[in-house]
Structures are given as C-alpha cells and as structure tokens.
Amino acid sequence: MALKVGYKALLEAAEAEIETITPETASALLGDEDVQFVDIRDVRELQREGKIPGAFHAGRGMLEFWIDPESPYFKDVFGSGKRFVFYCQSGWRSALATQTVQRMGLENVCHIGGGFRAWSDAGYSVETVERKS
C-alpha cells in the first residue's frame, strides 16, 4: 500500500510548526506554577514507567475533546492559561499532538524532544503511577 504522506513527513511538518524543548529545558520548568506538563501516553505506559512529577495525564485518543471548551469532555486544566509541555515516550506522538492543539488555538504549547525516554535517561525525577482498582 502506498501512502500519500508517511509518518516521517507528518513529523517533519509538525516539528516545523511547533516548539520543541530539551529535557534539560523542561526540567527547569518543573515546579513552575504557570507550567503544566501533559503526559499523552497510554495509561499502561504510565503504570509501567512512571511519569514526570505533577504531569496531567491526557491520553492521546481524547486530547482534542478534552481541550475544546465546547466538548462535553472538556477538562478545566486546559482552560487555565498555563504553558503546556506535552510529552509521550519518544516525542513522536507529542509532536503531532502539540501541532494539533496549537492549530486548535491552545496557546503557549511545546513538547519535549525525545519524550519521556530522554527525560528518564537524563536522570530527571520520575513519579510512580499506581494501578487504579
């Protein structure tokens, strides 16, 4: 099957439109009350590997619905006016997600290049996520 646009082209286009920050830059934002980290990984990934401390979990499949104030699934955190730092495992899903939410009109957004893997490989703090009963 020949695709019109492959994932590499999608990622390249997203990266051209969005801000990508390093894990080091992201770590300097940790604890800033005006910054909200957003983990878009699957809940099983969070349970297996943990998350950045204080990150809000917004699974990629519901992100657009949680961000839109007109959606019945809207989450107040996305109306807070904070800076949003999105991340996934390796930075691919978060690049596409950041592009999408930016196009939707969410301002002051970026993502962590290299994702959670780069964050944890650099030795930055990780918070355990317990399974819900």
Structure description:
With 133 residues, this protein is α/β, with parallel strands linked by helices. The protein has one domain: Oxidized Rhodanese, domain 1, CATH 3.40.250. The chain is built from six helices and five strands. The chain has helices at 7-17, 23-29, 43-49, 63-67, 92-104, 115-121; strands spanning 20-21, 35-39, 56-57, 83-87, 109-112. Helix 1 (7-17) packs across helix 5 (92-104). The protein is globular and about 40 Å long. The mean pLDDT is 95.
Chain-wise SSE layout:
Layout: H1 7-17, E1 20-21, H2 23-29, E2 35-39, H3 43-49, E3 56-57, H4 63-67, E4 83-87, H5 92-104, E5 109-112, H6 115-121
Parallel strand pairs: 1-5, 2-3, 2-4, 4-5
Helix pairs in contact: 1-5
Indicate the mean pLDDT: 95
Strand order of the largest sheet: 1-5-4-2-3
SSE ordering: HEHEHEHEHEH
CATH superfamily grouping: Rhodanese-like domain
Distance between the first and last residues' Cα: 42 Å
The CATH topology label is Oxidized Rhodanese, domain 1
Gross morphology is globular
Using the 3D structure, state the CATH architecture.
3-Layer(aba) Sandwich
What Rg, in angstroms, do the CA atoms define? 15 Å
How many domains is the backbone divided into? 1
- Percent of residues in helices comes to 25-40%
Enumerate the spans where pLDDT stays under 50 for 5 or more consecutive residues.
Answer: none
How much of the sequence lies in strands comes to 5-15%
Major sheet: size, sense and barrel closure? 5 strands, parallel
Global structural class? alpha/beta
**Number of DSSP helices?**
6
